[in-house]
Amino acid sequence: MIRTALRTAAALLGAGLIWAGVSYDAPQAQAPAGGVVAFTGARVIDGTGAAPMEGATIVVSDGRIQAVGRNVSIPAGATRVDMSGKTIVPGLVNAHGHLQADASKRPARDRLTSQLRMYADYGITTVQVLGLPLDDVPDGIKLRDESRAGGAAVDRARVLIAAASLRNLKTEQEARDWGNKYADMKVDIIKMHITGGPMDMTPAVYGALIDTAHKRGIRAAAHMLYLKDAKGLLDKGIDVLAHSIRDQPVDQATIAAIKAKDVEYIPTLTRDIAQFIYEGTPPYFTDAFFTRHIPNSYYSAEMAKLKDPANQDKIKKDQTAQTTKTWLDQGRKNLKTLSDAGVTIALGTDTGTNEGQWQGYFEHIELEEMVKSGMTPMQAIVAGTGGAAKAANVQQQLGTIAAGKQADLLVLNANPLTDIRNTRQIHSVWIAGRRLASVNGTN
Ligand SMILES: [Zn+2]
After folding, report:
1. Which of 30, 48, 199, 313 has its CA 20 to 30 A from that of 386?
2. Taking a C-beta distance cutoff of 8 angstroms, is the pair 224, 245 a contact?
3. Where are the alpha helices (DSSP H) in 122-170?
């Protein structure tokens, strides 16, 4: 029945009918569950930073990777899938995303699901949502539970949830109360905003929040910009720095603290780029990898607005937007410094919040920007897989290709080690060993 639906959809597309409005809501077909599948002949980049394996085999059953390597024996009766010429990397993980791009009045589950499908269609198979409006949290948690590694396979990105970001709390008691309230809601992580402004929580207050999170077995991530705030947060035990340090060069003491406390660092370079790039029409507005989805999704109105010359003029004259260019420059330098120092860098984009930060597409741009900032393609891939999985605290199950891990795989038609932009040459996306049907048949 699902196959028939797909064929019908394909026929509609073939007939030139626009599949608008239904793309992200239509159930997606997947390869049948069960049985053993062996992917053969691929170049495998496992997400740990190890050298790629050429001509490797990955054996998958029950949604998990059973074996990977060059000399793996293929069980009798396994379905062989010839992947020669392809490169297989772990499904990408976005350790800092959001689910607020679909601002329609539809039920929360529909809005959230369509956005998780958008991510998955671009090969982003796990998203850590660092801030979700409180009204959406119950549905978000339900989707999280359904997508838990080891559970039933899902046809959308797996999701981890922080509730609404906490900011401007006045007392330690207030911070503890919120921390406990969120823990009772079963969130995965607590997110806080330290902006450098006068209303910020004091270190004592955010320290109480971080402490409460840890007492309840939850990690804590912070939005921040300034070096002094990063230092304060590290001192109080923050687990994840969710943006770049952007006001000045990161110093040796801070590098040492990040390493000693094993904190993950999420640069979100595209977040800064999005602040000013719409002073003109960005080149990717004509990139097929971008346009294949955007115009027919909840993003079409946003794209129209960002192309409007009046809006572009406003951004040209916006002081904050222009200052962000300097911040981005400093953020890039700090990323290179921290990456060279061996800090765990994690892919994160802040997509799905502000205008012009595109879920799915911008994760690929972020990888490219990491490389432009001085990281190697391999380092960027590790940031987008093993590193981001660690920042989402799912590294035991996801983010690398190894026996026992979930079979979330991104199969590419070209090698991203020779050009990081090849992460966009998507052949297919697999979640828990099942192939995701592309919403428009291009994957
Ligand atoms: Zn964010």
Report:
1. 30
2. yes
3. 137-146
